[in-house]
Write a structure and sequence with these properties.
Distance between the termini: 30 Å
CATH class: Alpha Beta
Mean pLDDT: 88
Strand order of the largest sheet: 3-2-1-4
Low-confidence stretches: none
Order of helices and strands: HEEEHHHHE
Oligomer: single chain
Number of helices: 5
């Protein structure tokens, strides 16, 4: 990754961390889950409104580091209007991106669009859990669970 690209990615992550999108509770949510990363203390609640098989709205609340907050913010933007199957596939591609080496995650990065800003997270194993917390929490909510953890 070039220095310019790395700097752009850092700017995007900082922007979503300082001004998270969809950061609010949702009274009309019909699915939700609470996530916790016990290693660093990040906590997130993900709210989802699913109509039929389509994610109509998604939001989150919580407190965490910049990576955790930015990941949740960008996740909520990426999921609106997707089917639950598409949301599950997006989770799998994102998880591959943040956990695999770059040669194996190149396809995932190309398919993830803006979410590719998290491509460098795999270099920092402790940060993988920060980046993936909201995603694991979303998965729990969509599967009917109410809790998720990065343990």
């Amino acid at each position: 990754m070039t220095d310019d690209l790395r700097e752009l990615y850092q700017e995007v992550i900082l922007d979503h961390s300082k001004r998270p999108r969809n950061f609010h509770g949702m009274a009309e949510a019909n699915r939700s889950a609470v996530g916790h990363n016990p290693l660093c203390g990040d906590r997130v609640t993900v709210f989802v409104r699913v109509d039929g098989d389509v994610v109509r709205d998604v939001s989150f609340e919580g407190a965490g580091c910049s990576i955790s907050t930015a990941s949740a913010s960008m996740m909520t933007d990426a999921l609106k209007g997707k089917t639950t199957a598409e949301a599950g596939a997006l989770f799998a591609r994102f998880h591959q991106l943040v956990t695999a080496d770059p040669s194996k995650s190149a396809t995932a990065a190309a398919e993830l669009g803006k979410l590719a800003v998290f491509a460098g997270v795999h270099e920092f194993p402790m940060r993988v859990k920060c980046a993936s917390l909201a995603w694991h929490t979303l998965k729990a909510a969509l599967e009917g669970g109410d809790k998720a953890s990065t343990e």
